[in-house]
Amino acid sequence: MITSGHLLSINDLTRDGAFEVLDTARELSRITDGAIKKLPTLRGRTVVNLFFEDSTRTRLSFEAAAKRLSADVINFSAKGSSVSKGESLKDTAQTLEAMGAELVIVRHGSSGAAARLAQSGWIKSHVVNAGDGMHEHPTQALLDAYTIREHFPEHDRDFTGLRIGIVGDILHSRVARSNALLLTSLGAQVVLIAPPTLIPIGVSSWPVEISYDLDAEIESLDAIMMLRVQSERMNDAFFPSEREYARGYGLGAERVNAMKERAIIMHPGPMNRGLEISASSADSERSVILEQVSNGVLVRMAVLYLLMGGTAIPTEGVLV
Ligand code: CP
């Protein structure tokens, strides 16, 4: 259970709590697999998407998740809002709560923004972190773990023995931190693979191995998670050229051919095709990138359901 009433960090979940989210998502998948996709569990409840940074997958999948549980959804995007007139996070959130919000999903460019919203006492709503600066993106890690589990059913309740490589721009990645915390807590071995300039200071406190050599690691990985090069967060040159980066850390056909037989290719999106991942790798049979997107809806349904204490999940799809 998510005991704090918020999901701000993977550290808000125990190992059992993480499996509860994954199991609930699986149950929701089973029930909504047929013709009937919608459940009445959050009918009459209101969820707000509060996005101060751009998003495609996270915002839309939270919206789809809430609607599949019959909740009402208010979408807020900072662009085109009164934020441009100087309105603060506090006033914006309080305004949305005054319109009935019970759970706020927040994406913000500042690390700690979701925690500030949850812990300041400004609002009473549950808060879900949908990505805060370079800090965390817990629901991305949960959907990634769900996807890995679906491909390795022999590790259903224990990821021990799975070796997962997270490759590329670790420095600017909230996805890397949340995945490192979650996957290791489920038992997996995680190796961060990147040029030294893209490894964060303080990484020695993370429960991971570090490698600068993708070719030395590729044959040992069960899943490879390619990260987007986040040019918009780079105010310096972190590698000599895109060509050199792709040669050292990009996933192309030659590296894909060196992967284990059952190994899967992951990417949280959006992708820079031709930089961290080639088009042929992204579209290959090993790629589970679109499965990650579909699983994101299920995992986010589970998070909303568990946080908001919806009515019992029906045993089969029902008309609402
Ligand atoms: N993975 C992810 O967070 O994608 P979006 O930025 O499109 O939400």
Query: For this structure, what is the CATH homologous superfamily of the largest domain?
Result: Aspartate/ornithine carbamoyltransferase
Strand runs, count: 9
CATH class assignment of the largest domain: Alpha Beta
Q: How many helical stretches? A: 11
Mean pLDDT reading: 94
Hetero groups in this structure are: phosphoric acid mono(formamide)ester
The helicity comes to 25-40%
Number of domains: 2
Any low-confidence stretches, pLDDT <50, length ≥5? none
- Rg over CA atoms, rounded to whole Å, is 19 Å
The first-to-last residue Cα distance is 27 Å
User: The CATH topology of the largest domain, please?
Assistant: Rossmann fold
The CATH architecture of the largest domain can be given as 3-Layer(aba) Sandwich
Helix/strand-derived category reads alpha/beta
